[in-house]
Amino acid sequence: MKKLLVIGIGAGDPDYITLQAVKALNQVDVFFILDKGNSKDKLIHLRREICERYISGRDYRFVEAGSPERERGGEYDAAVKDLNLAKQQVFERLIGEELGEGECGAFLVWGDPSLYDSTLRILQAILRDGRLAFEYEVIPGISSIQALAARHKVPLNRIGRSIEITTGRRLAEGFPSNVDSVVVMLDAEDTYTRLDAPDLYIYWGAYVGTPDEILIAGKLKDVAADIARTRQQAREANGWIMDTYLLRRGDDEGV
Ligand SMILES: C[S@@+](CC[C@H](N)C(=O)[O-])C[C@H]1O[C@@H](n2cnc3c(N)ncnc32)[C@H](O)[C@@H]1O
């Protein structure tokens, strides 16, 4: 039987790797690397660095494949569905042709595989379709949300309260009415600048856990413009940006 490991590698700092992930890395024969063919080379580099640093006394190989990109401009959910179908074809080819019987393959997932990542959904779809057989395990990683909270030294929730984890796209529909703490990911549009909520506090972080890390916190109305400017400059300097933020209502110290 072929075996696959979906290993969460943490969201930036190679020190985020867990002991369980190190043990898993040391079982792998083939690492599958999906290349988006853009300036996110640093993210691919980090995966290679992790292997060099944590694997000892064992041969392994990398197999790279071009990663399909989402069609821009059309309906979002449909485009994501198409993207995942295209990715499924790539995964099927990799697992079918590049992994031998009895071998162990791995996908190194940024942060944690449970959070805004399609790897698990795609593997489940492949098994459902029944053209390939394999077993797989999931190794959790430190997500960008945990890294953000740690770097700002804040809890994500207020005492006994809920948090919501959402996207910039959803936040654009308005700050949720039933929670006071909201974590926002995948926001390409500076949605925080369009919220009319004078009591909101923001904890923002870009490239958290990496040498390029930037952190800004404060009353949203006081720091929003600074974050937008900093974000724009960082994106121009690096060619890409990944940022996450926690918004907290009615509280200026985050506890
Ligand atoms: C496709 S999601 C993947 C999330 C990932 N699975 C995780 O556990 O963090 C990508 C989004 O995660 C956030 N992100 C990932 N790494 C980050 C980092 N080091 N610093 C800030 N935000 C990050 C950004 O919001 C980015 O748009």
Task: Draw up the topology in text.
Blueprint: E1 2-8, H1 19-25, E2 30-35, H2 41-54, E3 61-66, H3 76-98, E4 104-109, H4 119-129, E5 134-139, H5 144-152, E6 163-167, H6 168-171, E7 181-185, E8 200-206, E9 214-219, H7 220-238, E10 243-249
Parallel strand pairs: 1-4, 1-5, 2-3, 2-4, 6-7
Antiparallel strand pairs: 7-10, 8-9, 8-10
Helix pairs in contact: 3-4
Rg estimate, integer Å: 19 Å
Low-confidence stretches: none
* Major β-sheet profile: 5 strands, parallel
Strand order of the largest sheet: 3-2-4-1-5
Ligands bound, unique? S-adenosylmethionine
Beta strand % = 15-25%
| CATH level 3 topology of the largest domain | Cobalt-precorrin-4 Transmethylase, domain 1
Question: Helical stretch count?
Answer: 7
What does the overall shape look like? globular
Helix share bin: 25-40%
Number of strands: 10
Characterize the structure shown:
With 255 residues, the protein is an alpha/beta fold. The protein has 2 domains: 2-139, Tetrapyrrole methylase, N-terminal domain (Cobalt-precorrin-4 Transmethylase, domain 1, 3-Layer(aba) Sandwich); 144-249, 2-Layer Sandwich (Methyltransferase, Cobalt-precorrin-4 Transmethylase, Domain 2), CATH 3.30.950.10. It is built from 7 helices and 10 strands. Strands 3-2-4-1-5 form a 5-stranded parallel sheet, with helices on both faces. It has a 5-stranded mixed sheet with strand order 6-7-10-8-9, with helices on both faces. Helix 3 packs across helix 4 (119-129). S-adenosylmethionine is lined by residues 11-12, 110-112, 115-117, 143-144, 185-186, 205-209, 242-244. Residues 3-223 form the Tetrapyrrole methylase domain. Pathway: Cofactor biosynthesis; adenosylcobalamin biosynthesis. InterPro entries: 4pyrrol_Mease (IPR000878), 4pyrrol_Methylase_sf (IPR035996), 4pyrrole_Mease_sub1 (IPR014777), 4pyrrole_Mease_sub2 (IPR014776), CobF (IPR012797). Keywords: Cobalamin biosynthesis, Methyltransferase, S-adenosyl-L-methionine, Transferase.
